[in-house]
Amino acid sequence: MESNRELFETYNKDVYRTCYYMVHDAADAEDLCQEIFITVFRSNWQSVEYLKSWMMKITVNTCLNHLKRRRSLQQKVAANLHFFQGKSAVDTVEGLVEQKETSQEWAIHLSRLPVKIRAVLTLRYLHDFSLNEVSDALSIPLGTTKSRLHKGLKLMKNVLLETGIPEQEWKGEHYEQAGACTQASIK
Amino acid sequence: MNKLGHALKHRLNEDKAVKYPDFEDMWTRIEQAGCNSSGLRGSSAPAGSRRTRNWSKIAAVASLSVLVAAVPVYAAVHYNWGNLLSSNEGIQTALDQNLGQQLGQSITRDGVTLTLRTAIVDENRTVILYSLDVGAHTDTDFWSVKGMTLQGAKERSKEGEYNYEQWDEENKRYNGYFESDWVPGQDTEQVTLAADAVKAVSVQDLELPLDVESMKMQSFPVGREGMQKIEIQPFAQSKDKLLLSSAVTFDDPVNKEGIFPQLVAYNGTTRVTGLSGGTFGEPGDHGEYKMKQYFKTGDITAGQTTFKLEYTKQERNIAGPWSFELKLSKKQMESGTHIQALQLPLETGDTDNTIEKLSVTPTQVRLSIRTEGKSFRRQLPYKKYSLEVSGKTLEGRYFGYSKEDSGLLNLRFERPAGLVIDKSTPITFVGKYKVTIHTEDKAPTLLTNISTEKQTLIREVGGYPVNWTYYMQGKDLYVETGSEDPHFGGINQTHLGENYKNLPGKPVTSNFSGDGNNKAIDVYKDFTGTEASIYMYFYTTDDPDKETRVQLQP
């Protein structure tokens, strides 16, 4: 791969989808996707050996930074609610309708998990990263990756049960028995 | 992979589940940002145009405040900043040479006036000096400006921004300092400096009947400033060092900003000075605010020393927007600036760490070092660093990894007054106190007859005798490691082997490398059994006398 355009064509969907599952907001995901490609194009990407791993590392970390910033912006907005009151009432109604319409969406389920856990699940299951690759991408020890993955699956199960998603959507007879969660997910 | 894992993999990869944006449109915006299809790199153009949506709220806030645009003015105005700039000598150096840009804009709200005085802008950073006049106030209140941020015309503000204030007794007002990594893309750029609020806080405390002789977890209700309770567990970390490991539970785990809880000890009315190395604010599993504090055992007498939970309480909150429109320029600084690309190993034979860039401005010298290797290895092997410039030593300040390039570490050196640095000035980088990471020892340490009784065995690690002390406390197994030999740096973390599938121990201590403390405690929750094979992730060795010298110029 030699040109920026080629790189963009190859990975734009992967990058966008990761952003979308990480931040659960289409507009923010679009901004982040653009920002990530600009960052990548300004770096010496041609010399990177494992391009996809490297791109996903940048993607997930950019999303984590964004979520950190957004949390602080939300606090700021909450502290100045009187400036936005008219608009936020509309947002709430829209939000409720949207939530109802898309309640089956897994992005919403994911968004209910803590961001650090979300990052591990996204890399592991969206991009099929090995546990070592996840550890490397997020700069965390292998043990932490395993425990976040384990916790993530446990939380996800609770979210699905709470949401009332039919069990056949995520349980299947051809899969192994329950109770071996951690061991089974160690690659 | 288990069934939920399979389901996740399947659902997340369903193409139709995600509605993609217009990628052609995005490509056009990327091209506008200066990145084109031929793969040109290194453009310094801003990050492309964005959809306007993101700025609508910010614009709405900004429009509520009176905006006055200022044009750059340079004048010899001498204002005494006291010791506000004591750790930013380079800024004082620039002010002394009249390189500051006078701003002089004010906003007054509820009797409190925030005045921007001077800006210093160069290739590395932007600094804005300001004053805060709070009028009549009580002596126990501390005022500060919160959420200060700089917003360029096209770029989002960068992280790494911070500000602080200092009371100016002579002028009866606060002096403030704001720093950002943001620099103008061109010589001059229009920016917005905004703050969320100006707040006053006071320091409060609550006495806690802590029993330091008991090594058990002790819980005390708090019921103030959103704090529900505090749980404290004392540990005798060595014969002369006491560790208090504690966690504050808040009503709302997300809303704990600005409370800054900490434990303080008093002998009568004398406050006990804690030892360095404490950590504050590490988040717990349920959003607790965790703290680790160290005290000299000799300073603490059971039954006599009293303990208090100290915290801050908000007294006033003058919400913004405190927003200023400014035109900042780095033109004044250009003549004293030079940047040089380098390719020098940190020491002979080191292929992981390479010095890549030296950048000299009138206020600062900045060194960029590329650190390769596995993530946990990506730290500078030398813990103390300085520059020798024409016989003068400039102490370094670690400034973290570059936001744009995660492998590039920046070290900063403030430029003292009167020191001439040009392209021919000899500059040498000096690194001291070497810390080496070792991962090769994968042999287990077998702990037997585990009980509530403390037992110690000695097991060699990298040629150093290391004490492994283990005991049960409640349902948990504690493993303490450490060596009398100061050249042993410590074990970062342990894990249980075999039956426990590499279950990691949870560190009770904060294990910093190169801090001269090689004691570490890991806890294994809900441990059952009487034997355990413990493995190390890695350990470090310290060589305080090892030194590297790299000639940077000429």
UniProtKB/TrEMBL annotation, chain A:
<dbReference type="InterPro" id="IPR007627">
    <property type="entry name" value="RNA_pol_sigma70_r2"/>
</dbReference>
<keyword id="KW-0804">Transcription</keyword>
<keyword id="KW-0238">DNA-binding</keyword>
<dbReference type="Pfam" id="PF04545">
    <property type="entry name" value="Sigma70_r4"/>
</dbReference>
<dbReference type="GO" id="GO:0016987">
    <property type="term" value="F:sigma factor activity"/>
</dbReference>
<feature type="domain" description="RNA polymerase sigma-70 region 4">
    <location>
        <begin position="110"/>
        <end position="157"/>
    </location>
</feature>
<dbReference type="InterPro" id="IPR036388">
    <property type="entry name" value="WH-like_DNA-bd_sf"/>
</dbReference>
<protein>
    <submittedName>
        <fullName>RNA polymerase sigma-70 factor, ECF subfamily</fullName>
    </submittedName>
</protein>
<dbReference type="InterPro" id="IPR013325">
    <property type="entry name" value="RNA_pol_sigma_r2"/>
</dbReference>
<dbReference type="InterPro" id="IPR007630">
    <property type="entry name" value="RNA_pol_sigma70_r4"/>
</dbReference>
<dbReference type="GO" id="GO:0003677">
    <property type="term" value="F:DNA binding"/>
</dbReference>
<dbReference type="InterPro" id="IPR013324">
    <property type="entry name" value="RNA_pol_sigma_r3/r4-like"/>
</dbReference>
<dbReference type="GO" id="GO:0006352">
    <property type="term" value="P:DNA-templated transcription initiation"/>
</dbReference>
<keyword id="KW-0731">Sigma factor</keyword>
<dbReference type="Pfam" id="PF04542">
    <property type="entry name" value="Sigma70_r2"/>
</dbReference>
<comment type="similarity">
    <text>Belongs to the sigma-70 factor family. ECF subfamily.</text>
</comment>
<keyword id="KW-0805">Transcription regulation</keyword>
<feature type="domain" description="RNA polymerase sigma-70 region 2">
    <location>
        <begin position="7"/>
        <end position="71"/>
    </location>
</feature>
<dbReference type="InterPro" id="IPR039425">
    <property type="entry name" value="RNA_pol_sigma-70-like"/>
</dbReference>
<dbReference type="InterPro" id="IPR014284">
    <property type="entry name" value="RNA_pol_sigma-70_dom"/>
</dbReference>
From TrEMBL, chain B:
<protein>
    <submittedName>
        <fullName>RNA polymerase subunit sigma</fullName>
    </submittedName>
</protein>
<keyword id="KW-0472">Membrane</keyword>
<dbReference type="InterPro" id="IPR025436">
    <property type="entry name" value="DUF4179"/>
</dbReference>
<feature type="domain" description="DUF4179">
    <location>
        <begin position="51"/>
        <end position="132"/>
    </location>
</feature>
<keyword id="KW-1133">Transmembrane helix</keyword>
<dbReference type="Pfam" id="PF13786">
    <property type="entry name" value="DUF4179"/>
</dbReference>
<feature type="transmembrane region" description="Helical">
    <location>
        <begin position="58"/>
        <end position="77"/>
    </location>
</feature>
<keyword id="KW-0812">Transmembrane</keyword>
